[in-house]
From TrEMBL:
Compositionally skewed regions (Polar residues) per UniProt: 20-31
Annotated spans, Disordered: 20-40
Pfam family, one: TROVE
Species this protein is from: Nocardia uniformis
Recorded superkingdom: Bacteria
Keyword match Cytoplasm: yes
Name of the protein described by the UniProt record: TROVE domain-containing protein
Residue ranges of domain TROVE in the record: 32-366
Localization in the cell: Cytoplasm
One Gene Ontology molecular-function label: metal ion binding
Taxonomic classification: Bacteria, Bacillati, Actinomycetota, Actinomycetes, Mycobacteriales
Main location: cytoplasm
Membership in a protein family: Belongs to the Ro 60 kDa family.
Length: 542
């Protein structure tokens, strides 16, 4: 006899879910229109800023918005959020650079935070925010470049002090060797002369490093200080005649030790050799390369003929969950590596790495409808080289979620259209296969024609495919045509929108009443779904 799985219980759960709230909130009645004309819901400043920041590659055009317009909107939102709640904005920017790993958006945000505080004559906080977002040694120069381009050559004291804090923390011999070059508008020496950082007492070599960086910037012929052992070793290698350099790799251990002592990265070795990077060179370099550098070079190693023994060690590192977590790579980077390096010796490792990067994707009970937007506007790049597209991200996250649901229907949707002699379907149901790796499923999605590429009839897709599911998850840029998505399914059914573009208007209300929005290019916000379904108040992930 049934005691627990009864309608009354489900009603209680539904009531708890309906009462839950989430942080990205909007108006409850649409006041605008999406770019394709559907009813559009304006979000709060925090909500709009969050969704834009976690999907914004600064300076990059999107389907509906130019890079300049997008950047101006982002800057205005940061300033508005700073004026309203500087503590929240400070936490957000620190999280954006660290856990969300959005570098450029965080740097711009710190500059605009500082500008807003200065304009309001509000002291404090700016120095700490600037320091918190500068996490790589080339970034102080990047931040100065942004300020000069937008607000002139004079840097305010809070910005200088934040830069100085970061310089003391980030500048060392290896970072100077890696990032300081004449290709940069603001070199290490420029940053030091602008910010005037005092060397740290626990780094007795740092004063000599600062003086040498300034000498380099002004092309002075002063000798490298004795304290800077790495840079002196590097200078010796650079002085070696080109025809003698490759001989170093006859002994891999010696080559590795010599190059490490000189702070030579794989990029600098490639230029130093002035010739091809063969297997012997790569095998000497690989053990000292960082996780991201290894991920980027899999195809190069296949082409160079790196041995299976060395490749197996790399694959083990790539698949290690701790290494994946420490690397903070976005899930899409593993798809990019998989496509670039089709060799079978990397496939399993990249799949395991992707699993690690998607650890926050929840296991959902019951029946879930997953709708993946593959309209034309989702055929839009978010990586600087254009190789990763928003619909790639939508398909990857959608397949990963569907694979962890107790039962799921996953659908690619667009809009039925006949254009230039071609018929576009309104939607296609994607057949999931038991135990199929996510990366292989994403490639099957691509090869079997599930990227449709027409309009965006989101409300129509909900109405066609909803069949008393326990929840609906839509991965989209929200720029639909036609009806109101929020009213296309019963009010008692939770609707979760995963936004991948950060445009101004959403396609449904969000924040309460079974209507919620999340976003970004990482898995972090997926943790909100189980909280909401437990009737809890889901908060910001920082």
């Amino acid at each position: 006899m049934a005691k627990f799985n009864i309608a009354r219980l489900r009603g209680k759960v539904a009531s708890a879910t309906a009462a839950a709230t989430s942080p990205i909130r909007s108006e409850q009645v649409p006041s605008g229109r999406t770019h394709e004309g559907a009813p559009g819901y304006q979000r709060t400043v925090r909500g709009e800023l969050f969704l834009l920041a976690v999907s914004n590659m600064v300076g990059e055009n999107t389907f509906y918005e130019s890079g300049d317009a997008r950047d101006n909107r982002y800057a205005a939102l940061v300033r508005e959020a700073t004026a309203a709640d500087p503590e929240w904005t400070a936490r957000f920017l620190r999280w954006l650079r660290s856990e969300a790993n959005m570098r450029s958006a965080a740097l711009v945000g710190a500059a605009e935070f500082t500008k807003a505080r200065l304009d309001a004559a509000q002291p404090g906080m700016s120095r700490q925010v600037v320091d918190s977002v500068l996490q790589r040694a080339d970034e102080p120069g990047e931040l100065i470049g942004y300020w000069h381009a937008n607000y002139g050559r004079a840097l305010p004291k809070p910005l200088k002090r934040g830069l100085a804090d970061a310089v003391r923390r980030l500048y060392d011999e290896r970072s100077l060797a890696k990032w300081d070059s004449s290709a940069r508008a603001f070199r290490f020496g420029d940053v030091i002369e602008i910010a005037h950082p005092a060397p740290l007492a626990e780094k007795p070599w740092q004063g000599a490093l600062f003086a040498h960086a300034i000498d380099r910037r002004h092309n002075r012929e002063n000798a490298i200080p004795d304290e800077l052992l790495t840079l002196r070793a590097r200078a010796e290698l650079l002085a070696l005649p080109v025809e003698q350099r490759r001989a170093l790799f006859q002994d891999a251990d010696r080559a590795r030790d010599t190059l490490r002592a000189a702070g030579m990265t794989w990029e600098s070795v490639a230029g130093w050799l002035q010739g091809p990077m063969d297997a012997a060179v790569w095998e000497a370099l690989i053990p000292s390369m960082g996780y991201m550098a290894q991920l980027r070079n899999l195809r190069n190693w296949d082409e160079a003929g790196v041995s299976d023994e060395v490749a197996a060690k790399v694959a083990a590192r790539l698949a290690d969950p701790e290494q994946v977590a420490r690397s903070r790579q976005l899930p899409m980077r593993f798809l990019s590596a998989y496509r670039a390096a089709p060799s079978l010796r990397w496939g399993h490792a990249l799949e395991k790495a992707l699993e690690g990067s998607l650890a926050n994707v929840p296991v959902l009970p019951g029946r879930t409808l997953v709708l993946v937007d593959t309209s034309g506007s989702m055929d839009s790049g978010f990586s600087s080289d254009g190789t990763l597209l928003r619909w790639d991200a939508a398909a990857l996250f959608g397949i990963a979620l569907a694979g962890r649901c107790e039962r799921a229907d996953i659908v690619s949707f667009s809009q039925a259209t006949h254009w230039q002699g071609r018929d576009y379907p309104d939607s296609l149901v994607f057949p999931m296969r038991d135990h199929e790796p996510v990366l292989r499923a994403v490639e099957r999605w691509k090869s079997d024609g599930y990227f449709i590429g027409a309009g965006t009839d989101t409300a129509g897709a909900v109405e066609r495919h909803f069949a008393a599911h326990d929840r609906v998850v839509i991965l989209t840029d929200e720029q639909g045509t036609g009806g109101d998505v929020g009213t296309a399914l019963p009010a008692s059914t939770p609707l979760y929108t995963w936004n991948l573009a950060g445009y101004r208007y959403g396609h449904a209300p969000s924040g309460s009443n079974n209507r919620h929005a999340f976003g970004g290019l990482s898995d972090s916000a997926f943790t909100m779904i189980p909280l909401i379904e437990a009737g809890a108040r889901a908060e910001w992930p920082f």
